[in-house]
Amino acid sequence: MVVDDHPMWRDAVARDLAEAGFEVVASAGDGEQAVRRAKAAGPDVLVLDLNLPAKPGVQVCKELVAADPALRVLVLSASGEHADVLEAVKSGATGYLLKSASTHELIDAVRRTAAGDPVFTPGLAGLVLGEYRRLAAEPSPAASDEPGAPRLTDREKEVLRLVAKGLSYKQIAERLVISHRTVQNHVQNTLGKLQLHNRVELVRYAIERGLDDD
Predict the structure, then answer these.
(1) Global pTM?
(2) Contact assessment for residue 46 and residue 64, using Cβ atoms and an 8 Å cutoff
(3) What is the maximal distance between C-alpha atoms in the chain?
(4) Which of 8, 14, 46, 112 could anchor a disulfide with 117, C-beta 3.0 to 4.6 Å?
(5) For the chain, give me the number of helices (H) and strands (E)?
């Protein structure tokens, strides 16, 4: 689903994605419309502009991810401001791409977002990881060694550690000599056990526990 308040831009993105083989199930031009149509259409991936009338993009993202934690949100914005990027990620966005990206980069980003990989315009990935490190340095109410903490299998911990290091599912599969689907299954199981909603939250969880340094 494509959400943007500029009709020509929205139509062009939808057309490019359709020509690349994606099924565009809906589009919307404002925030309220986006929430309604997304809940009705149930897209796998939402390509979302932040600057929307009626309801801002970050609020749209927050509401839709809360309603459907499996939804992947790729923000496509003209703004590369760090505050906008971090706000989008905290609201549940899987990735963030600038509108200056090429059609090829957009299509690749949507494909990777659909697979669950975090996709960021070059230079922004380090910013997001740095913010999670800062948040992880703050006192956390939960620790992994507390009684009743979820128990992960050794393989789930191994996958989680590689996710925290920023590897894509494909890279993890190659490193562990398992299938891409098996990696996805491990991630989904881990999300369920930890009661997290998406890969971004999973990375923060792992960094809080120092798994990315192992």
Answers:
(1) 0.68
(2) yes
(3) 55
(4) 112
(5) 10, 5
